[in-house]
Specification:
Layout (H helix, E strand, L loop, with lengths): L1 E4 L5 H9 L3 E4 H4 L5 H10 L3 E4 L3 H7 L8 E4 L6 H13 L7 E5 L4 E5 L2
Parallel strand pairs: 1-2, 1-3, 3-4, 4-5
Antiparallel strand pairs: 5-6
Length: 116
């Protein structure tokens, strides 16, 4: 799986995930300042799953029916960039179906919502 991290995901988190062999790029590196809708367009164009703390992405997906390869919504107050990376890595290791779903990641739980 390939991922694109929104600008609200720290670059330190992205770098840690890259060092763990996870194929992730940051919007900050590719095209800073994009709107949420344009980030999803970019994710689709590059065949990547979006990772974000931004609640607007859920609205784009559920209310506006915006297409996505997949969406990981981070819903916890991060203690550090490393904690964010470790939490994402835990979700990936659990081998949940992320593609074509919305995965809501909280500090102590994960919810997978099918959006087909």
């Amino acid at each position: 799986m390939q991922f694109i991290a929104d600008e609200n995901v720290p670059l330190e988190t992205v770098d840690f995930l890259k060092k763990r062999g996870i194929d992730v790029v940051s919007v900050s590196e590719l095209s800073p300042g994009l709107s949420d809708s344009k980030i999803l367009d970019l994710a689709n164009k590059k065949d990547r799953i979006a990772i974000t703390f931004d609640k607007d992405f859920g609205q784009l997906k559920f209310k506006e029916k915006k297409q996505t390869k997949g969406l990981m919504l981070l819903r916890f107050v991060p203690e550090s960039p490393l904690q964010i990376a470790l939490r994402i890595q835990q979700v990936l290791v659990a081998k949940m179906k992320i593609e074509h779903n919305v995965v809501t990641v909280k500090k102590d739980s994960v919810k997978v919502t099918s959006v087909k």
